[in-house]
Predict the 3D structure of the following.
Amino acid sequence: MNIERLVTMANDIAAFFASEPDPDAAADQVANHLRKFWEPRMRAEIRGSLEQGGNGLSPLARRGVERL
Amino acid sequence: MTVTVWVSRDAGALALGADKTAQKLLAAASAAGTAIKLRRNGSRGLYWLEPLVEVECAAGRIAYGPVSDRDVPGLLEKGLLIGTAHPLRLGPIEEHPWFTSQQRLTFARVGRIDPLDLDDYLTQGGFTGLRRALDIGPAATVKEVVESGLRGRGGAAFPTGIKWQTVLKQPAGQRYIACNADEGDSGTFSDRMLMEGDPFSVIEGMIIAGAAVGATRGYIYLRVEYPHALRVMTAAIAAARKAGYLGADVCGSGLAFDIDLRLGAGAYICGEETSMLESLEGRRGEIRVRPPLPAEKGLFGAPTVVNNVVTLATVPVVLAGGAAAYREFGQAKSRGTIPLQLAGNVLRGGLIERAFGITVRELLYDYGGGSASGRPIRAVQIGGPLGAYLPESQFDTPLEYEALAAIGAMLGHGGVVAFDDTVDMLAMAKYAMEFCAIESCGKCTPCRIGSVRGAEALSNIARGIEPESNLALVEELCDTMLQASLCGLGGMAPYPVLSAMKHFKEDFGKRTNGS
Amino acid sequence: MYAIDHKDLGTPAAASGESVTLDIDGSTVTVPVGTSVMRAAALAGGQIPKLCATDSLKAFGSCRLCLVEIEGRKGFPASCTTEVAAGMKVRTQSARLQKLRRGVVELYVSDHPLDCDECPANGHCELQDAAEELGVEGSRYANGGATQRGVAQDASNPYFVFNPDLCIVCSRCVRACDEVQGTLALTIEGRGFDSRVSASQHQPFLESECVSCGACVEACPTAALTEKLPLSLGAPTEAVSTTCGYCGVGCSLKAEVKEETVVRMVPNRAGTANNGHACVKGRFAFGYATHADRVRSPMIRKRITDPWREVSWEEAFAYTAAEFKRIRKKYGPDSVGGITSSRCTNEETFLVQKLVRAALGTNNVDTCARVCHSATGYGLKHTLGESAGTQAFTSVNNADVIVLIGANPTDGHPVFASQLKRRLRQGAKLIVLDPRAIDLVRTPHIEAVAHLPLRPGTNVAVMNALSHVIVTEGLANDAYAEARCEVDTYRKWKAFVADPRNSPESTEAISGVPAALVRKAARIYAAGPNSAIYYGLGVTEHSQGTTMVMAIANIAMATGNLGREGVGVSPLRGQNNVQGSCDMGSFPHEFSGYRHVSDAATRSLFEGAWNAKLASEPGLRIPNMFEAALDGSFRGLYIQGEDFVQSDPNTNHVVAALSAMECVVVQDLFLIETARYAHVFLPGSTFLEKDGTFTNAERRISRVRKVMEPLAGLADWEITMRLAQALGYPMHYSHPSEIMDEIARLTPTFRGVNYEKLERLGSIQWPCNDAAPEGTPTMHVDSFVRGKGKFYVTEYVATSERSTSRFPLLLTTGRVLYQYNVGTQTRRTSNLAWQSEDRLEIHPDDAEDRGIANGDWVGVTSRAGDTVMRAVVSRRMTPGVVYTTFHFPESGVNLVTTENSDWATNCPEYKVTAVEVVRVGHPEAWQERIRAERSAQRSPAMPSA
């Protein structure tokens, strides 16, 4: 899968949940969204990308992906 | 000393040369080095004497007439400005026998005042009706109008107060006053004379109506054929607004009322109240089905008082003098006065305001002086182009609603048109159908198609084509139109036709081609 | 002429709940207060002659045939305009009445042709009926009288003809245009005998303001206005009730048939979604169903470069099943998937997702709603608790303030627009949020109190500013919100929107909407008392589509505008069954009734019913499928009724993905653009060829009924069933009603739905279950479906798609009245007479800067691609914004749109693409080719990646 596209999508999701003041809760919400709506392949790819440095992931997206 | 001279600005007077006379007066006086103050009034309604010139002098307000511009230099020379005797001198016009026998209530000020001079209006009793209405409040005002017995002078003769009551008791919300100034009946001119001669009385009537039923807005629907009335009414509305009679706070009462003037576009049918409302709303002038009555759902769907100009201008009279005083005039169910408009083939046409009850004959001969042609008067049509034709045998009928209804006629808006013995009553019957065909809005079938077929059948009778069967067909058609038409246009067009066929049978007999 | 099986009652039903009893011709009749005497007589089984009355129009009282006698009343009142009264005694027949009625009919026929045998209305003409009943055989009025006859016919409209000679000036057509359609295109010109029907300023119908809804044709009592098709095919003999296959309004129609051929389509006056109205598409544009381009045999090919080979159904199923099995075996179950169609029935949609989940063993199922209203589902589910609009269409009749956001109902949802216009003309206030001045902003007797011409992509900023005004000016309904919503989320939301960064003054720079206008609109919305929001794809097709849906729900909750008639949040759905396809479990993460696949209880319910092991992880969404196809992990796709290549964004990307796959199965009516990349083509069936149900935008489930046999032999549900069987999964239904029974068993919100009940009630709005056995017109009445309403903080996040010096304009997309979606159907009808190409609308200032004149060819370029189309210079546009539609493949609009999508649902950001527009000499060669091939449609011509 095109990892750049996945990173953009993860960042878009994180941007919505960024208004949550509790950083922990925000990361949970991002992770939860990914779990509910991303097919396992996509989750695996974004996790894989994170393991290789997570280039381009916003801080909140990164924290969310970390919790997958 | 500057002498005040009155020359009418009424459209009828202007048609007879009043402007030329007035200009000549100014020019000639100036040339003679005499200062005159020219004032323009409405017409007194003695049209055979127009242009009428009135001079305020020591002897009072002395009238001369008819004064053409050519008469002016001579008259001036002879001492017009001091009221000198002259063949054209009429004396004070209010002492003229044609005038003294009248009972001018609604037209009391017309011809006496400068129509746009608010002070004139006030000094002659203007706005006393309004002040009283504001004092006694809506319910009492409506009660006064009910008790006065005033009925709609536009033609339908519906009790005005009852109509107001209906509007008053509608659920709260926007209401309107609509003044019907689409005076379209042939031979009528009382609305015009009032608007040109005493516009504030119409305005005052509308304000009283507004205050009585809780309307904050009034509309005047004026026929486009009345440019002079348009100018006067427009100026009068502006003056009334400026003086605080119209606007957000009428006379400090806290009530709001204002008036919009809208012009018709030349359709007779828009004088019918529901078509008028359609036209006011910007739609095609077409009949609305009743119910709902305009008093329930009228202009823009809101409860609306629709009254004729004369009716509204009479309201201040009722309020100022009280219902009882107004009721004193007239008889039976026709209370108050009626401005009759005498026209057609008569010697002296004009406006006669009198209590209901004068006979047709009195009107034609005492006021009209018989026919202008000098021939016997054979027929009169009362109440406009849809009114019945009366033969001589019915001339003793009193001019009041029920008496006329009893002989299948109607008073309508008070127009009376006379014809001498040269009239072809078959042609008049055909004309009635043609008028209906031309003025039909086209909504309902009996009127839209029936009027055309009626005129065709009558034309065939005139040409001698199957006269018997066509006469029978016309009678049947008249029944269809009378019973089935949606409004009074198609529903009343048979009246002149049937009355002509009934009273002037001889004109419908066998004819030679082409007559 | 109204539907052949319609018994006309003359005047509309009265709304009153009270009734009165009266006497008509000696029988006692009880009817609602406000009923006309005419209707009462008809309800009692009688029939008063009439010509100007029909029960879809207000009584007019012009023909004067329906006169009656009423005891105690003068004269002969018209029964159409006379309301019943208690104790009234009416006589509808008497010698006197006969005579008057005969007199009137004789006048009509004095200027009407009497050669009825030659007339297309023969046998269905109301004048003929009246004349026969009254014994009028001709007119005694002499020949040679005035006539209005001899005026030429107007056949300019492709679907109907106007013959003035047959016109009786009853005004039914004019009133239908005013009252039913609300376009006011027709008038009576002239007066009296010269009165005649005229389209606009005495123009041919096609050139006039007429939108060809056909209401006038249906209203005509004679053959003055007649459909053309029955003129050539003959009169229909049977009427079958069904539901329109076009937009999400879901009009109830009657297909009038002659020997299995539809000759006329007439709206069902008993239809609750449309109240007897239809539009140019639903009423007239059904010719595609029998178009020569319809594919009538299955076809297969090994490679997409091979020619198609016609095969038997058996071979097609066997081949497809073998391919899917092969791919699954080689790449695993998640290498295949399926797409359900929002144009197919609920039952068919349900079967496709069942096939994917149960027979293919994967959750890789998605639907075309992905690209339109997926954000609605997510946004409303999370805030209110249900993925659907909250109201019935009729709710608008109680709305005082109507807010239209990113929707253009007069083009997209014309029949609802008519209802909307009626309400606006009664005085409801209109607020429009749209970059374009859509028709409703100013149309006869309607003017929006506020039009907020926002910059594309700034919806959320504007909505936050509206909320800011409501909260900071104390206009919110705290009592409602705190009682019915989660108080903590409400307060958090209030604090958020109250922040100065969300004030209209701050957002003005972002949205371009003057602060004062935002404040005005907010105050009007808050003042209500009944404020309703209607929205379209201008809300959802954005990178913040879901955020915007939530923001809409927020403002409605905060002002108490939910849970009763006249208020609500109503998405206007694009296609006939978008709501239904979503309800049926078409999304990869949920089963029917919006239950997540990870929910063990739900899954075990389905596993038990379907006798299959079901996956617990969400599957791929459409754009994800393309990505997976490009990296080789997704190889087989079964597509029911969707044309990705034309409708999905970034065509080059889509084409590349499809070209990389091993087995693409397209099930459709025509060889659509996507079929160019398919290996199997399964010829589908139109809505006329099958039984089933559609669910419209108001959650209304309505029956679709078969009026002709499927051209290729199988209905779509049968194709899916046979494919499942070929895959070795047993699927056996003898009728779609059995599929609905299964849906009802497995879906709580559909528990009470069955065909017998649909037959009885006409239609049902879900939820329909024990709690609401006859359905639910208004949702969230006493409490929200999710319990307490939940507010979400909706921070504005600018789209990454923004105008730059290279791409200085923003392109947004929409649709026109005469074409539908990708045009597969409407392009194959005479609707082309009005619109035969997509055009680019551009503001005069932007056009002038670029030397572009009306009608010039212009190149449109974005970072994704480019295309060429013709320009229309229009003041509807805001400077800086250009607009086009996507109905024609040769316009290639989606070559330009990008892969950007909604954060939550991946709904594409169709509404914002940064572009540059330049004047060019001519279209591209491939465009010319498609245009030329339009009627053939048989050879590949799209650019490959």
